[in-house]
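Running this now, will post back.
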Amino acid sequence: MALTVAVAGRPLVLWPERAAFDSESRTLLVADTHLGKAQAFRRLGVPVPGGTTADNLLTLSRLVERSGARGIVFLGDLLHARHGRSPAVLEAVARWRVRHAGLELRLVRGNHDSRAGDPPPDWGVEVVDEPWPLGPWALCHHPHPVPGAYVLAGHLHPAVTLGRGIDRLRLPCFHFGAEVGVLPAFGAFTGTHTIERAPGDRVCVIAHDEVRLLPG
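Update: finished.
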């Protein structure tokens, strides 16, 4: 179940699949996909599970269909590393792109993108530097304030810890501060970082198949 919140006076739909949707522009916002991360680890000899790229693409397809999105903006770190640009990853995304040829795709470069390189031309992704304007927001990868706009960013892979002892649980979240909001990492093979919550911050936690606003 999605949750709609007002961010800088504009509605933003938060999906439990770790993405946000701007209904006014019909744009999906996705941070930290890290395509090819598992492949990069395996090339380094680290045994990690496969299938993460396929999982990410399937989830994207479901979000596009469910939301009626006309475009996707990736808030940085679309690709994880040059080692992850395997033929299997490149071909899988190219096939996905053919099935969604009408989508407008844009990447706001992140720190991993600078090392992994821009997406291949056949992916049809416009690549821009941060900040990128959308309504009242500045779309970025790094969560730093931008004068005159509210920042929506990624990079931190935010999460919160709930409960104590054996009942302790860490869950990904959307974190909205006074000037900057941070989306959870979308990628199926990414870690999380526990956030510091300041007074007045809004934290929307992802629990199973719904998004909930934490009290306080």
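The first strand starts at residue 3 and ends at 7. More later if anyone needs it.
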